[in-house]
Amino acid sequence: MQNENIAGRDGSERRRDTLERLMAERDIWVSTGHPEHGPHQVPLWFVWHGEALWMCTSATSATARNVRAEPRVRLALPDTSDVVLVQGEARCVPADEVPGDAAAAFAAKFGWDPREEEGPYAYVCVVPRTVRAWRGEPELRGRVIMREGDWLRPPAA
């Protein structure tokens, strides 16, 4: 696949575009792994709030079980032409213990508040450690825009 008409963005443009997508997108692919059962991948609704991604799932789901056993996760926005990959450590927060501002942001975005449901729900919080973003081959170089939890500064011109 050729991407001849794609102009490469610098690091600050990639960061801005990535943050805009994290605020606007609805779904994210969540990849977890269990030491005995192997990999698991599922799309979840998410909200970007307070420099973290907040998702919600059943407290008994494979995702929640996996995060409790192995907190390292990978997340991916669904557009393969405008790639955003996030790596970090997840933690499960019971719905009745989630910070109120994060739960309110999730509920406002989706019109659904898991704290009001009868079944046990858990929020999965991921603070990014590494973020990669690129649009096609011309942007493969420099695709790491966050490393060790710090946004990288573009090289001086």
CATH class: Mainly Beta
- Can you give the helix content as a percent range? 10-25%
User: Order of strands across the biggest sheet?
Assistant: 1-2-3-6-5-4
CATH topology: Pnp Oxidase, Chain A
Can you give keywords for this protein?
Pnp Oxidase, Chain A, 157 residues, alpha+beta, 3 helices
Could you describe the 3D structure shown?
It holds the Pfam family PNPOx_N. The chain is α+β, with helices and mostly antiparallel strands and 157 residues long. It has helices spanning 11-24, 62-69, 100-110; strands spanning 27-34, 38-49, 52-58, 72-76, 83-94, 121-134, 144-147, 150-151. It has a single domain (11-151), classed as Electron Transport, Fmn-binding Protein, Chain A (Pnp Oxidase, Chain A). The protein is 21% helix and 41% strand. It has a six-stranded antiparallel barrel with strand order 1-2-3-6-5-4. The two termini are 31 Å apart. The model has no long low-confidence stretch (mean pLDDT 93).
Quick summary:
By secondary structure, this protein is an alpha+beta fold. The chain has helices spanning 11-24, 62-69, 100-110, and strands spanning 27-34, 38-49, 52-58, 72-76, 83-94, 121-134, 144-147, 150-151.
List the helices and strands and how they pair.
Layout: H1 11-24, E1 27-34, E2 38-49, E3 52-58, H2 62-69, E4 72-76, E5 83-94, H3 100-110, E6 121-134, E7 144-147, E8 150-151
Antiparallel strand pairs: 1-2, 1-4, 2-3, 3-6, 4-5, 5-6, 6-7, 7-8
